[in-house]
């Protein structure tokens, strides 16, 4: 899970290098192309390892398609947000997703409820609000980041719900194929000239995203969604680091306070879990 949480921000950093304006050091490419290429290239990378595992009946399960649509919405929204907003801010707003996944897991999957963890979840949500700034300075980019979090939270819960449907590689392949099909028309229409730099960033974005999501699926097949949720917060460390090193961007004071709250709530949730359940030690 920790490796996955490093790979996913790395893929999104490459995505930002593609979608950001030329004045910001990017390539100015449409986010929908980056999202489509990520799904399509990821599917090609995984295909040789899963063709014997994927059966036609997997795609007849409506839950597979709904889960795929959740991921399509999440990736397209976060790449749209990254085209105009700093990486650290986008990921902090995106962290409404793990909060939502915990609440939905308790409600729909009947996972254990903890009053202390609920309080920490609320603390994390306050942190998200400080970054997003709804109603006072909220930008369209941050709105897309928050929307990406909603999609992603639903995706995480569905990953746990469908943990026994198929093997991890088959589940990954199904979501990549669905994403490539859904975004094929607008993605191909927005295809830019394939220069060496664009091809390198596109391949990096697709590979990091594919590997990160494969490890994510494996993690959710081995443990409860509520147990995995706190580890998701480590993405903030990598997002802030990549933003500072590659783009020279640091969060403002209010956003930094929000990011800190989100990280504290996530790590404290993990500690509460370990104290309450010594087996997780």
Automatic annotation (TrEMBL):
Record-annotated EamA domain positions: 28-132, 140-265
This protein's GO CC annotations: membrane
Signal peptide: none
Record field: transmembrane: 35-55, 64-84, 90-109, 118-136, 142-158, 170-192, 198-219, 231-248, 254-272
Stored InterPro entries: EamA_dom (IPR000620), EmrE-like (IPR037185)
Keywords: Membrane, Transmembrane, Transmembrane helix
Keyword Signal included in the entry's annotation: no
PANTHER family linked to this entry: ACYL-MALONYL CONDENSING ENZYME-RELATED, BLR2811 PROTEIN
Protein name: DMT family transporter
């Amino acid at each position: 899970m920790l490796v996955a949480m490093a790979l996913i921000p790395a893929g999104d950093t490459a995505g930002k290098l593609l979608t950001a304006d030329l004045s910001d050091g990017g390539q100015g490419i449409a986010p929908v192309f980056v999202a489509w290429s990520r799904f399509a290239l990821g599917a090609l990378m995984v295909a040789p390892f899963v063709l014997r595992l994927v059966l036609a009946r997997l795609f007849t399960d409506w839950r597979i398609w709904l889960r795929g649509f959740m991921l399509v919405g999440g990736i397209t929204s976060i790449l749209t947000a990254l085209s105009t907003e700093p990486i650290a801010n986008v990921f902090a707003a995106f962290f409404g997703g793990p909060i939502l996944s915990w609440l939905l897991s308790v409600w729909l999957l009947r996972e254990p409820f903890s009053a202390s963890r609920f309080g920490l979840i609320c603390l994390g949500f306050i942190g998200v609000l400080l970054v997003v700034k709804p109603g006072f300075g909220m930008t369209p980019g941050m709105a897309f980041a928050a929307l990406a979090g909603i999609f992603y939270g639903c995706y995480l819960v569905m990953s746990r719900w469908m943990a026994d449907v198929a093997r991890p590689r088959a589940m990954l392949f199904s979501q990549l194929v669905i994403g490539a099909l859904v975004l094929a028309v607008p993605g191909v229409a927005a295809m830019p000239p394939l220069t060496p730099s664009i091809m390198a960033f596109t391949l990096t974005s697709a590979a990091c995203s594919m590997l990160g999501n494969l490890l994510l699926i494996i993690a959710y097949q081995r443990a409860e969604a509520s147990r995995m949720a706190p580890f998701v917060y480590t993405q903030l460390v990598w997002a802030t680091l990549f933003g500072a090193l590659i783009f020279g961007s640091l969060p403002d004071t209010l956003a930094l306070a929000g990011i800190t709250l989100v990280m504290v709530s996530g790590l404290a949730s993990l500690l509460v879990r370990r104290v309450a359940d010594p087996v997780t030690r």
